[in-house]
Specification:
Layout lengths: L8 E3 L8 E3 L13 E3 L3 H9 L4 E5 L10 H21 L5 H25 L4 H19 L5 E6 L6 H19 L4 H13 L20 H8 L1 H12 L3 H9 L20 H16 L10 H10 L7 H11 L7 E4 L4 E8 L7 E4 L11 E3 L8 E5 L6 H7 L6 E6 L8
Helix pairs in contact: 3-4, 3-5, 4-5, 4-6, 5-6, 5-10, 6-9, 8-9, 9-10, 10-11
Length: 417
Amino acid sequence: MKTAQTHPTIEVDALTVGMLIHLDGGWMSHPFPMSSFKISSADQIATLRSLGLERVRWSPEEVDSSGTNAPAVERLVERRGSLADRRRRLAPQAAPSQLLTASERQFSEAAKASKKVFDRVVEHPAAARQAADALTRQLVDKMAGTEDMCIQLLSEGTGDRVCAHAVNVSVISLLMGRSFGLGEADMHDLGMGSLLHDVGKAEIAERYRHREDHFNMAERRLYENHVAAGMAHAQRMELTSGASAILDQHHEHSDGSGFPQGLSSDRTSTLARIVSLVNAYDNLCNPANPGLAVTPHEAVAHLFTQNHKQFDTAILGAFIKMMGVYPAGSVVQLTDDRYALVVGVISSRTLRPRVLVHDPRVPRDEAPILDLQTVSGLGIRRSLKPSSLPEAVLSYLSPRTRLNYFFEPAGETRSPT
C-alpha cells in the first residue's frame, strides 16, 4: 500500500468519477465524511473545486473502469440514490454506530484541540491563542454554506467535562450565529469567545469552579472571580474586543441580575448574549453533579418559562427554533406509543427529528433510527423523564447522563441503507 508521501498528485480539473483520492489538511478542512474516498459524482468534483484545491493525491491503481465514462456512472449513482431514498422511506433504519462515528471522531478531535488551548493558556498565551484560532476557523469553515444543519447527539464518553462543555457551547453558539447571518469577523469572535468563556476557571480551586446552592458569600465570590481571571488571560492572549466581551459578560443577564457587573442587555454585546444563553442551557443539561441534570426538553422549557427575563427575547426565540422543543437527547413517546431517544434535529424541521426507537426484537446496537420527516403519520406525542421509563426501555435507550453535541449538513446525516 502506498503511504501518504508516495501517492502521486493530479489536477482537480482532471478528476473523473471512479478515482480514489486522498485529501490533506485535517478532518474539518473539507465537507466529506472521509479523507480518502472514491469519487462517485460530478458534484463531488465541483465541491473539490470550490475548496480552492488545484491538485489532490490519488491512487491510479484503484480507478474503477467505469470512471472513464463519468456520465454513465453518474446516472447509475442517481438511480441508486433514488432507490435508496425509496428504501429509506419504507424502512429508514441504520445502526447508530454507523451514523455517528464521523461526528464523534470530529467532536473528540475538537475536544483534544480545546485541551491543548487550556493547557497552554497560563505559560504560553500566544500559543494558546493560535490553537484557539485554528480550531475556531475549522469550526466556522465547517459550517459554511447554505445547507440546513443537523445537531447530533453523541456518546457521553467523548472528551472530559471541561473540554466537552467548551466545545458544546462553541458549536451551539456558532450555529446560532450562523442562523443570524453573522459576518466572518463576528463569527470568529463568537467562536473564540465561546471556546474560551470559562478559561478563568483554571485559576481557581476545583471545588469553586461550579456554583452550588450551598455556597456562602465568600465562596460565591471565589466562583465569580473566574470572570476577572478570564479577562486577565484574554489580555495576555491579546484577544479581540469582541471575543473579550464574551469572557467578560457571559454571566450577565438581560434583566441586570447577572454578574460581575449586573449589566442589562442594552450594555452587553450580542455575541455575549448568545453565549450567556447557550452556556446556561449546557449547564442545565450537564451540571457538575449529574444527579441535578434535567432533560434537554426540560432545559428549554425552564429557560422559556422561568428564566426568560434573563435572556435576550430574540436570541431565546431563535435558540428554541433551532434546537427544537425536543432537542437531541430528549426521551419521547411517539404517536404509536413506542419510546424513543432523539438523536438528531435539523434546524428547519425541529418537530420531526431523527429518533432511535425502542424495539425489543432488535439488538440495541442495531436499534432502528427513524427520520420522522420521511415517515408519514408518525410523530412525537410527549417528552418523558428517563426515570419514568420501564426498566427494559431505559436500559435499551440508555439516555445520556452527559450530553455532547456536534453537527453535520443535514444532507450528510441520512441513514445509510
